[in-house]
Amino acid sequence: MAGADTIERLQLFLRELSPQARGMLIAEFERSLLRGDELGAADLVLQELRRIARDQREGAPRIGNSGRLFFKPLEPFLVDDIGQHRHLGRISRSSLDLLWNWIARDVLPDDAKAVDNIVNAALAEGDAEKAKYFVRAFQDRVALALTDQLRNADTDDKARRRMLSQIGTQRAGEDAAILKCVLNARDGLSAMAAHLPLQVGNLGPRQIDECRALIEKTSPTSSDVFLYSMLTVMHRLAAPWQLIRLGVKAAGSDTAARVAETPYGVAVTIVLSELERQVAELRDDLRSGRGVAVGALLKTIHDAARGLRTELNMPMDSSWGRALSGLRSQIGDTLRLEIDSMPGRVRRLLKPRATGEIRPNSSLDSAEVADTEALVAFVGTCRHFAGELAINEMTQRTFSELQQYLDHATRGLLEALRHAVPAERSFRQSQVDAAVRLCATVFGRDYAAQLSKAAELAAADRKAARG
After folding, report:
1. Which pLDDT score, from 0 to 100, does residue 59 have?
2. How far is CA 292 from CA 27, 120, 161, 368, in A?
3. Which of 105, 208, 334, 350 has its CA 20 to 30 A from that of 286?
4. CA gyration radius for the chain?
5. Tens digit of each residue's pLDDT (9 = 90 or more) over 243-290
6. pLDDT given at position 290
7. How far apart are alpha carbons 205 and 245 in whole angstroms?
8. How far apart are CA 102 and CA 166, in angstroms?
9. In whole angstroms, what is the distance from residue 254 CA to residue 312 CA?
10. What is the 3-state secondary structure (H, E, C) of the chain?
11. Computed from CA positions of residues 15, 16, 19, 25, in that sequence, does the dihedral angle turn out positive or negative?
């Protein structure tokens, strides 16, 4: 499929970039997105960059060639989390190792070993089509075996407990059922995906009609495959929350109760689940301090919350309304912790030190400076979305406080650099350098350039006085 091949080439290209190049790409995309620029596949690129960073941090799945080909039909239904949260019709990418081990050890061990040998030999000979052919045949045999296993598990509690224990994922039964359904519907879903654009920037009226026609051609609204057809569409949306527009169109109304009465009402449940996953991802990234493109992720969350609230008439006391209200509260609480911590982080970094407090020839920790700079930039990003996320007053107050502090603190830092003795000079200089970086984020590059020039003059004054 052309779309899948394009994404694979993009993944390979991004993984071959140096970490510095990926960092520059992320920063530029984030700045452009926050300006509201139209960047085509920027969301897709940022999603892949976040996945690369997560794989490098946590370790990518260790399955081999045959396993990767085997799970290829699952790609639209994979989520990048640790598998604790329930996603309707979706599987955590981190669960693939365990699922493959279960299939190769307990479901069809002889077949798995044979196909692994054939696939590796075919790929070594450059015959990718042969490898795909044997993997497809293996997928068909696995689907039949899973049907038997799940049927036995439904009628035999002992067999069910054994199967869940053998799989070992946090949602083992659901993971097995999803895998079975996707493998059985593989060809229909693949044909449907081939008729979809690689990315749908905006799900407008014409695109809605086209997607509905593809969905209903692939699966009756009453079938199990209907859910996976919906998820296939969402996988191609630049803004996944727009999937709810299928429900609004089907109902002929934006009233939540009317939408819920249609088969397409499941779109709202899917979107709320995706929003919950994104909120958890943002919270984990901020807590770890190792997040990538968190500004873009926050924009995605903001747009989804606003879209659900403005395009769907959901009473606050409805189940969907309560779920959205709870998520908005979680977002506000998560951001509030970061925003409240930011001024203190900056003060600790730039606070004036007496000569006796400075270790000779030391300097600020570069990682701490980078983390603080990233936090300041993130709080600046929060200002763009503060109104929707109910943090407007707090964000404006905190950022104003930061501006006043930096404007005042930089004068003291320059004066300290001007009068620094040799043993403390490197530390004083590192504080000024950190202030320049923070001022570039808060006030802009012109202000930072002026501060940098003032620092050069202060250093020159120090040398002149010593001379």
Report:
1. 58
2. 10, 34, 39, 16
3. 350
4. 27
5. 999 999 999 999 999 999 999 999 999 999 999 988 988 888 887 766
6. 61
7. 9
8. 6
9. 5
10. CHHHHHHHHHHHHHHHCCHHHHHHHHHHHHHHHHHCCCCCCHHHHHHHHHHHHHHHHHCCCCCCHHHHHHCHHHHHHEECCCCCCCCCCCEEHHHHHHHHHHHHHHHCHHHHHHHHHHHHHHHHCCCHHHHHHHHHHHHHHHHHHHHHHHHHHHHCHHHHHHHHHHHCCCCHHHHHHHHHHHHHCHHHHHHHHHCCCCCECCCCHHHHHHHHHHHHHHCCCCCCHHHHHHHHHHHCECCHHHHHHHHHHHHCCCEHHHHHCCHHHHHHHHHHHHHHHHHHHHHHHHHHCCCCCHHHHHHHHHHHHHHHHHHCECCCCCHHHHHHHHHHHHHHHHHHHHHHHHHHHHHHHHCCCCHHHCCCCCCCCHHHHHHHHHHHHHHHHHHHHCCCCCCHHHHHHHHHHHHHHHHHHHHHHHHHHHCCCHHHHHHHHHHHHHHHHHHHHHCCHHHHHHHHHHHHHHHHHHHHHHC
11. negative
Give the list of residues 6+ apart from residue 238 with CB closer than 8 angstroms, or none. Answer: 41, 43, 44, 199, 200, 201, 202
Structure token digits, residue 336: 């509030």
Residues 457, 460, 465: CA angle, nearest 5 degrees:
125
215 in Cβ contact with 254 (< 8 Å): no
Look-up: residue for tokens 């501006």? Answer: 403
Share of the chain above pLDDT 90, in %: 54
